[in-house]
Amino acid sequence: MERERNSFVVNIPISAPPRLDGQIAFVTGAAGGIGSEIVRSFLAAGATVIATDLVEANPFAGEAKVDYHRYDVTSMEATESVVAAVLAKHGRIDSLVLCAGAISNQSLDVASDGEWDRIYKINVMGVVNPLRKIYPLMVEQAYGKIVALGSIAAKIGGVQSGPAYVAAKSAVHGIMKWVAKSGASKGVYANIVAPGPVETPMWEACTDRAPPSPNGNVPLGRYGQPEDIAQGILFLCSPQSNWITGTTLDINGGMLMD
């Protein structure tokens, strides 16, 4: 929509209801606890979802509007292959959700070079590689919405995570700010969702699960659920957020009041 504003022509559309009918959404880490809920939320909003993960068997078998690809986000060769396949079939990518990730709670004196490398490759290059191929496509089509999973850990120095995870997620926050600044004049939006602790298998594997406390660690009195995160991401990929870019949406039950 174009509107006259003080003699300027504003080409960025005005915010609108949260429907994604006819849009193509590309989701990494789609088989995980948060990723699978993102897929369901986008389907409910009318999108066709390109769901990607390392899982061999299609976890969304039977879903007519899910196109599943086994995809290793740490490989640029795999990135080029999957994006080419998606474009050949669907012609465009309207939204990109960068959800693939791995957590580490190893302390500074314990984490090996291999652990730092593993966490960096999955969390940082797992964001950079899809961006390398999909961001230019969005610039060419003059539209796109990108959301990356950051973390409260990047903002407060960790919850129960170690320094490798904190450093990797901090890098993701910085990368996405660059994309937002670069893409703003080209119709491409980039935002971050920074969850607090969310009850998923990945989180449960590296936490002592101290009970949430409304008077202590979690003011809203419970840990997050995948739905809490997915709905925030849907908001940032929908027309409801057409004047939001370069921001971090904190979804953490009040653990960080920024």
Notable features of this structure?
258 residues, alpha/beta, Rossmann fold, seven-stranded parallel sheet, two-stranded antiparallel ribbon, 7 helices, 9 strands, 38% helix, 17% strand, disordered N terminus, SDR_fam, NAD(P)-bd_dom_sf
Overview of the structural elements:
Pfam families: adh_short_C2. This is SDR family oxidoreductase. Keywords: Oxidoreductase. The chain is an alpha/beta fold and 258 residues long. A 7-stranded parallel beta sheet has the order 5-4-3-6-7-8-9, with helices on both faces. A two-stranded antiparallel sheet has the order 1-2. It has a single domain (11-251), classed as NAD(P)-binding Rossmann-like Domain (Rossmann fold, 3-Layer(aba) Sandwich). 38% of the residues lie in helices and 17% in strands.
| CATH-defined architecture | 3-Layer(aba) Sandwich
Low-confidence stretches: 1-10
The averaged pLDDT comes out at: 91
Q: What's the order of the H and E elements?
A: EEEHEEHEHEHHEHHE
**Gyration radius, rounded:** 18 Å
CATH class: Alpha Beta
Q: Please, what is the CATH homologous superfamily?
A: NAD(P)-binding Rossmann-like Domain
**Proportion of β residues?**
15-25%
The helix tally amounts to: 7
Task: Write down the oligomeric state.
Answer: single chain
**Order of strands across the widest beta sheet?**
5-4-3-6-7-8-9
CATH topology: Rossmann fold
How far from one another are the termini? Answer: 33 Å
The residue fraction in helices comes out at 25-40%
Major β-sheet, in short? Answer: 7 strands, parallel
By DSSP, the count of extended strands is: 9
**What number of structural domains do the residues give?**
1
What overall geometry do the principal axes of the alpha carbons give? globular
Estimated structural class = alpha/beta
